[in-house]
């Protein structure tokens, strides 16, 4: 593509580089307009004897077509691609789920001159119709080779996709003394069930038990028996150590404590574990006390990802520290 200043008659078929205004300052022709022969009388009437235009090379792709091609390169499963306008295409969610982003592919595309893709943060829980990213072609056209380079950087699920929430049968274990049981249930269960419902899942049962590793293990086993594919534990107190009663109960059943403690506030006292069961490995969240609030906390960051069957480990939890201050801290 090259830019030239031409008489209007010679500029027919080429693309205006700037808006053209009439005598009152009103837009008569917009930037990006491809001049036609029928536009010449109007240009003469407005007094334009020369215009600045972009002249495309044979292998150039117009900004609208390029934006649409790039959007289809970027978009993976669970994503709707809008129509192009002025070199821009927005992409939206087709369903609920966490937004998964291939950060390396995104970086590679944005390193190509003239191509830009701006997204929501990775793992954002998105809803149908929500805008996930905007694709903008900066010049009026780009070489087709640049789009081929972008396509070569992308894997089979695109740069971004909405992950399917496959784990929808959620079991809950509330741990407290008998004296505190009603208070704990009142304080925690509404926020827990609200989160589950927001994700389109079902709480298949809630077991109430005392802070004893054998009793907790029995509750976990009971939930597995009725088909729970993800379990949330919460209680009168947060898990305070890897050897607390909840992690001991998980290990008693053959489970593995994947990580304890998260660089996220609210939610530092997170426990994440996995428990083998039949042909599956069931994620268990040992929720900190902040789960009683509907304000965003660590549970909101990991629950959708676990429901999407992502195997989270120490590395994934530690990575949440970047941007992990979700709300004001409290004095200890």
From TrEMBL:
GO terms for molecular function: metal ion binding; molybdopterin molybdotransferase activity. The keyword ATP-binding does not apply. Keywords: Magnesium, Metal-binding, Molybdenum, Molybdenum cofactor biosynthesis, Transferase. Belongs to the MoeA family. This is Molybdopterin molybdenumtransferase. Its cofactor is Mg(2+). Pathway: Cofactor biosynthesis; molybdopterin biosynthesis. Catalyzes the insertion of molybdate into adenylated molybdopterin with the concomitant release of AMP. It is an enzyme of class 2 (transferase). The keyword Thylakoid does not apply. It catalyses: adenylyl-molybdopterin + molybdate = Mo-molybdopterin + AMP + H(+). Its EC number is 2.10.1.1. Residues 171-308 form the MoaB/Mog domain. Signal peptide: none annotated. GO terms for biological process: Mo-molybdopterin cofactor biosynthetic process. GO terms for cellular component: cytosol.
């Amino acid at each position: 593509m090259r830019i030239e200043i031409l008489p209007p008659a010679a500029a027919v078929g080429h693309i205006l580089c700037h808006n053209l205004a009439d005598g009152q300052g009103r837009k008569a022709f917009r930037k990006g307009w491809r001049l036609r022969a029928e536009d010449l009388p109007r240009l003469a009437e407005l007094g334009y004897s020369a215009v600045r235009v972009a002249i495309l090379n044979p292998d150039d792709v117009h900004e609208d077509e390029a934006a649409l091609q790039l959007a289809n390169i970027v978009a993976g499963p669970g994503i709707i691609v809008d129509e192009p306008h002025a070199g821009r295409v927005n992409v939206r969610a087709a369903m609920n789920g966490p937004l998964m982003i291939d950060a390396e592919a995104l970086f590679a595309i944005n390193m190509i001159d003239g191509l830009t893709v701006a997204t929501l943060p990775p793992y954002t829980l998105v809803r149908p119709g929500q805008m996930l990213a905007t694709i903008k072609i900066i010049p009026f056209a780009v070489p087709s080779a640049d789009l081929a380079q972008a396509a070569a950087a992308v894997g089979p699920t695109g740069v971004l996709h909405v992950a399917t929430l496959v784990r929808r049968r959620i079991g809950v274990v509330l741990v407290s003394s008998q004296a505190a049981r009603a208070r704990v249930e009142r304080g925690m269960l509404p926020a827990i069930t609200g989160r589950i419902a927001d994700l389109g899942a079902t709480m298949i049962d809630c077991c109430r038990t005392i802070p004893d590793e054998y009793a907790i293990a029995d509750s976990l086993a009971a939930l597995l028996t009725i088909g729970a594919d993800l379990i949330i534990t919460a209680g009168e107190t947060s898990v305070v150590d890897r050897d607390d009663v909840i992690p001991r109960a998980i290990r008693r059943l053959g489970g593995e404590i994947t990580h304890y403690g998260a660089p996220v506030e609210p939610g530092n006292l997170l426990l994440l574990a996995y428990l083998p069961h039949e042909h599956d490995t069931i994620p268990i969240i040992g929720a900190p006390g902040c789960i009683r609030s509907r304000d965003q906390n660590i549970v909101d960051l990991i629950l959708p990802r676990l429901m999407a069957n992502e195997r989270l480990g120490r590395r994934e939890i530690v990575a949440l520290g970047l941007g992990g201050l979700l709300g004001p801290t409290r004095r200890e």
